[in-house]
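SUBJECT: A protein chain and its fold
Encoding: whole-number codes for local backbone shapes
Chain under study, with its fold:
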Amino acid sequence: MNRSAVVILALFLVVGSGAAAAPATSPEARYRELVKIVDRNAGHAHFTRGMNSYTIMALQNSVDESDIPVLQRMLGDKDRIVVMTTVNVLMWMSTQGRRTVYETLLTTDNSTSRNTIAEQLSDLPDDMTLKVRIPGWTGDIPLLKRMAESRDLRTIWAARDLLKAMGEPGRAAIRDVLATTKSQRTRDMLNGEAGR
């Protein structure tokens, strides 16, 4: 092959590879896209807009692990339905998704988001599809124990409810927190839960 053919081929490959690569979606554009998915699939019952299984499935089918940073930002959205849906999707996704929810709950300064996240976590043990999965989440116990030491009452309840749903490993974790905590609030909220 002569030198000019090599140069033309190299130029073709450089230009061709640039044309084939789609521009990456910015995190802000992806955020707006995912919020629209939630909004389009929000349910309406009794004249109230709310989250339902279709809302969760629509978002779940639109994301993967690479979206976790965007989903974490969505946990602070001003729309309660967006936050509720995002909690459910992250808890279904993976260990990384669940830990993102716990870490956000432990670190957020937004009390509205914190309350919504904690309420959703407390409701998870009642979800029949998740009930069978929760006992396998024992790797989450260290973060749940940290949540049980929170100053926020709803966060303590969420930790308690998830630990109880894990069976004996979770009840053992509750007993461990009771044995070591200096927080009267934590003791009051967890006392009597370890043996149930």
Confidence is low (pLDDT under 50) at residues 6-22.
